[in-house]
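Lab meeting minutes (informal)
Scribe: AK
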Amino acid sequence: MSLVLDPAAQDLLFREARTANTFTDEPVTDEQVQAIYDLVKYGPTAFNQSPLRITLVRSAEGRERLVRHMAEGNQPKTATAPLVAILAADNEFHEELPELFPHFPQAKDVFFAERAAREGAASLNAALQAAYFIIGVRAAGLAAGPMTGVDFEGVRKEFLDDDHTPLMVVNIGKPGEDAWFPRSPRLAYDEVITTV
């Protein structure tokens, strides 16, 4: 069975998807970010909880504050990317559930009254949304450089609050010169897929 998605779109979103390490100085506009969000917001999450929160770092001052929390090898690319996004899980996402899950507004209290339950659900579903976000960046014709080489506690204290857990930092822009490392191998189908 073949895929219904156009082969060029398959390439753009998956086969050619790489972590960008350099970027041009072409800016990423608010309109591009809005278009990305307007696409990826439809990706499903459990209970439609939608816990991903995105902090865009544009200012020189904000960039300086963020770079000092990046691992040494990630600092230059974060310092020079046209746009950087901090992706975080909102551990208080349940407050939005009466609006986001209106056919069962009690889910807020039935399933997510306890902080530990919220943190687990927020982490999983925000990570899922982070993947949607990266694919959305690709769909906008931009390159993404997601990174977890970050002092997450430092980023949380610097940019977020105790109700938000940072998941990754993503550099965004048009790929620059020598943007890509050589592609690493992938596991074969039968190494990943098991039928029982």
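Next up, CB showed the second protein from the same session:
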Amino acid sequence: MQRLFVLFDLDNTLVDRRGTLADWAAEFTARHRLADEEQTYVLSMVAERAYPRTFDAIRIRYRLPTSTAELWRAYCTDIAALVSCPTEVLDGLDELRAAGWRVGVATNGAVDIQRAKLRAAGIAERVDGVFVSGEADARKPQTRHFALAAARCGTELGDGGWMVGDNPVNDIGGGRTAGLSTIWIGHDRSWPPNDPGPDHTVPHARAAIDLLLLHSAGHTRTTT
């Protein structure tokens, strides 16, 4: 019998990264006494993904006396303090595991910042495994990323499974190539034309969890 397992993306799926970054950029520019209009540049530097080298560029641009390492550590601390996961989503992760699901997080990014967010948001203790691309230089949409994430949950891609995320290429395209069923967190966006669509589209993570719980209920009925 196939095991039920699901991998969730982290940023803008389980947590709101966009809103968190906007708040952080405002605090950062104020702390370092930069002009208000510099918020746009600072935000653009971390919008896609942030690494220590990102803060080397910021430090050089503004001639900040703080070291790159100190700026990076402060960023990890600040983002972790700002990030949150909705209570109904945290409860849903518990419900999935109680229903027999193996639940994991598959996320791109630097290890220290991603794991800090997972701990601070209360997600880390509610999943069976986490894989961050920085741990083994395996980034979504590479199939190896999904395989390593599944292994962290004590399962493998050949067991089937699901991928839930907001990125059409990294999460949905990558998940499909890895042999996973897919749920796209649409955030009121339209699916890119000419791209194969996800198996399901939902507005937020709690709706994805509810869909998975319905799936597992039907799975139980057909295997008993």
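CB comment: The CA atoms of residues 76 and 112 lie 7 Å apart.
No objections, moving on.
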